[in-house]
Design goal:
122 residues; four-stranded antiparallel beta sheet; elongated
Length: 122
């Protein structure tokens, strides 16, 4: 089995910073794209940032210049450094990853973490 666990959410004042991390565990062979999504109350889940295995990145326009996604392939971990936080960044942040793993058979599936709450007070 494979599991994604997020860390680092919390309450921060507008203009502040937070760093989220997400670690994948299990009998993992490789991880392709890793991403962060968020869901604000009453809104649909949206892509915040994604990073390929080769570290090519893509960001939502609303976070460009403020957020940075990175990964450590040796640790099967993805990070999201969030600077200049705004009240509209408030929401539950979810980690997502395309993971190839083995349990007898080799599987390649898409996984979600349980989510971590980020609240930005104005």
């Amino acid at each position: 089995q494979v599991q994604l666990v997020e860390f680092g959410g919390g309450l921060v004042q507008a203009g502040g910073s937070l760093r989220l991390s997400c670690a994948a565990s299990g009998n993992i062979l490789s991880i392709n794209t890793m991403a962060w999504y968020r869901q604000a109350p009453g809104k649909q889940r949206e892509l915040v940032a994604e990073i390929s295995r080769g570290s090519i990145t893509n960001y939502a326009d609303s976070v460009k210049g403020r957020f940075t996604i990175s990964r450590d392939n040796a640790k099967n971990t993805v990070y999201l450094q969030m600077n200049g936080l705004k009240s509209e960044d408030t929401g539950v942040y979810y980690c997502n990853a395309d993971i190839q793993w083995r349990s007898g058979t080799v599987y390649q599936l898409n996984y979600w973490g349980q989510g971590t709450q980020v609240t930005v007070s104005s």
